[in-house]
Each structure stands twice: as structure tokens, then as C-alpha cells.
Amino acid sequence: xxxxxxxxxxxxxxxxxxxxxxxxxxxxxxxxxxxxxxxxxxxxxxxxxxxxxxxxxxxxxxxxxxxxxxxxxxxxxxxxxxxxxxxxxxxxxxxxxxxxxxxxxxxxxxxxxxxxxxxxxxxxxx
Length: 126
Description:
Blueprint: E1 8-9, E2 15-16, H1 31-35, H2 40-55, H3 61-69, H4 80-90, H5 94-99, H6 114-125
Antiparallel strand pairs: 1-2
């Protein structure tokens, strides 16, 4: 069954759906709802995998799995499954996402005559 949902425009420019008047269901995924798919041990190991990912410098999930599979982290109790569960429960590591945004080099400021600028600044002070 295909159903059309009408979105209303709020004064601030945001769209919303009024579900009070309709016989509708709203699905919201939270950490608690996703966490219920896993056992307590799996959640604990996933949380440990997530914290180790932050400790070793926020590698991407793919890189982190490669580190674990190739035993590049000595005595690491984390498995590939723990890493996948961590990303499913807690989402991707914010540090690894922020690391991917690069800074662009600002354009160079060229000052043609520094004596005129110094003279203008001196006049403003007096």
C-alpha cells in the first residue's frame, strides 16, 4: 500500500508532518532500539572497539578492520565483528569523519605600501 504524506511548511522554513491527525506510525531509530538487537557482551565489546578506535587515532572503519585482521595492534581483544557492531550501534567515529575534511590554503595577502598603512594607523590612534 502506497500512501502520500503531506509535509507542512513551518514559519521558520522547516518542513514537518502532523501525525496527530493521521493514523500513522513514526519510526525513530535510537541507540537503545538498535542496542536491543545485541547481547550485553556484544554491546560491551562493541563499545570497547569504539573507544579503541578513538585511542589509536580515529582510523576509518575499513582501515581499523584491516589493522585488526592483520594483527597490527598487539594483544588487541577486538574482532572484525566487534567493529561492525560498534558502527551499527554507535555510528561511525566522529573523529574519522572530521579527519576527512581538509583545510584549503587561504589566498595570500599582499601589502603594497606598508608605510602608508602604518601612517594611517598612527593617525587613527592620535
